[in-house]
Every structure is written in structure tokens, then in C-alpha cells.
Specification:
By secondary structure, the chain is of the alpha+beta class. The protein has a single domain, classed as GTP cyclohydrolase I, C-terminal domain/NADPH-dependent 7-cyano-7-deazaguanine reductase, N-terminal domain (GTP Cyclohydrolase I, domain 2). Helix content is 30%, strand content 30%. A four-stranded antiparallel β-sheet has the order 1-2-3-4. Helix 3 runs antiparallel to helix 4. The longest helix is centred in the middle third of the chain and has 14 residues. The two termini are 31 Å apart.
């Protein structure tokens, strides 16, 4: 399986447990790794045979900019679910960073990382 990495997708969003986070917003950074078969694109050199990265970046930005979740875990999951809708993607890793968490005496970052994959249902699944 091949992998495409999209790093440091930076966007402003409104996810957070504090009311002011959902009103004032803050900066987030997203890294995604996408597992898919790139063998055809590697031979053909045609955009139509691979995944258009611009579409993935647009989905990530749209989710971050419009979501108003309390938990980073929910936002990361929503991003993963949206990316898995792209046909060639079999698995995705989302690394969501809250760049400046409003926690007293904490100058670091908070990072949620999750990996999700498509569930392949065969025509015989569910039969006993």
C-alpha cells in the first residue's frame, strides 16, 4: 500500500470545550496520511489516476472552519470520516493539533492522532 502525506494544513476553527473557544476560535494544524494504491498513477502520469490533494485539503479546511465541536477527538474523527469518502483512500491517519490551548501555565500544543480505515463489506458478510 502506498501513502500520501499532507502536512501542516493550517486553519482557523471553533472547536473547544470552553464557550469562548467556540465564539472566538483559534488556530489548528492538521496532518493527514492517506493509504491508497498509487501504482496506476506511477505508470500513467495522469491526475485522473490518483487522488487530487486539493480536494482533501479543502475537506480538511471545511471541517475545521465550520465545526463547533467540544472535543478535538470529535473533530479529528469527522475529518477522518470525510476523507474516507474519497474512493481510492483505504486508510487515513489524522493528526490534529490545537496550536495554543487555553490552559493556564501551559505553552505547549495538544495533539490528537487517530487512524481509521474503510470497512469492506463482502456480499456474504452477515450470513451465518
Amino acid at each position: 500500500m502506498d501513502c500520501i502525506h499532507l502536512k501542516e494544513i493550517r486553519c482557523y476553527g471553533y472547536t473547544g470545550a470552553l464557550p469562548e473557544e467556540q465564539v472566538l476560535g483559534q488556530w489548528f494544524e492538521v496532518d493527514v496520511s492517506l493509504w491508497l494504491d498509487l501504482s496506476l498513477a506511477g505508470q500513467s502520469d495522469r491526475l485522473s489516476d490518483t487522488l487530487d490533494y486539493c480536494n482533501v485539503i479543502a475537506v480538511v479546511k471545511q471541517r475545521v472552519q465550520t465545526a463547533r465541536y467540544m472535543l478535538l477527538e470529535r473533530l479529528a474523527s469527522a475529518i477522518a470520516e470525510a476523507i474516507l469518502q474519497f474512493q481510492p483512500v483505504n486508510q487515513v491517519n489524522v493528526r490534529l493539533t490545537k496550536c495554543a490551548a487555553p490552559i493556564p501555565d501551559f505553552g505547549g500544543k495538544i495533539i490528537i492522532e487517530m487512524t481509521r480505515q474503510k470497512i469492506n463489506l463482502s456480499p456474504t458478510s452477515g450470513r451465518g
